[in-house]
Amino acid sequence: MAQQSKQPEQTPRPLDKPSPIVVAGMKYSKEIILITCIFIAFGIYALKVMNKNEFPSFTIREGVVAALYPGASVEQIEQEVLKPLEDYVFSYKEVNKKKTHSGRGRALSRRIGGANRAGGAQTA
Predict the structure, then answer these.
(1) Model confidence over 20-37: pLDDT tens digits?
(2) Distance in angstroms (rounded) separating the CA atoms of residues 34 and 25
(3) Residues 87, 78: Cα–Cα separation, whole Å
(4) What is the sign of the dihedral through the CA atoms of 22, 28, 31 and 37?
(5) Deepest in the core among 41, 50, 81, 98, taking most CB within 10 A?
(6) Angle between helices 20-27 and 29-49 (to 10 degrees)
(7) Cα–Cα nearest to 81, from 102, 58, 50
(8) Do 87 and 93 touch, CB atoms closer than 8 A?
(9) Tell me: the pLDDT tens digits for 49-81?
């Protein structure tokens, strides 16, 4: 076995000059304790008064319309189903985004609504 060389443990050197923040904390310790107690009291007060709602209610403003038209071509679906549906649904001001897809025998229209307006008509 090889002999391990032991180095003497070095003790950390003390700081030459403490930080100004530490000096101020030591000089004004009573004021710092007072401010800390005020913050703790304010936190306890805010915790009791604060509105706590773990499960807020919200409205999902999204809708999907799917139509099946067996045996119809893509052009026929777009003319007879998708175009009238888009004209009706997207005529509302609240609807601000649309995605439509059509395939052989099927049509899919997806809309995402805008902000809720007070007194206005709501569409789901």
Answers:
(1) 898 998 899 999 999 999
(2) 12
(3) 12
(4) positive
(5) 81
(6) 90
(7) 102
(8) no
(9) 988 888 888 877 777 778 888 888 888 888 888
- Separation between Cα atoms, residue 21 and residue 23, nearest integer Å: 5
Q: How far apart are CA 24 and CA 3, in angstroms?
A: 51
State both tokens at 43. 């936190």
Helix, strand, or coil (residue 25): helix
Q: List helix spans (H) across the chain.
A: 20-27, 29-49, 74-77, 83-89
Using the CB atoms, write b or e for 91-101: b if 16+ within 10 Å. eeebbeeeebe
Q: Which two tokens stand for residue 25?
A: 């904390």
**CB contact at 8 A, 91 and 101:** no
Q: Tokens in use for 46?
A: 């805010």
* Rounded CA separation 89/97 (Å): 11
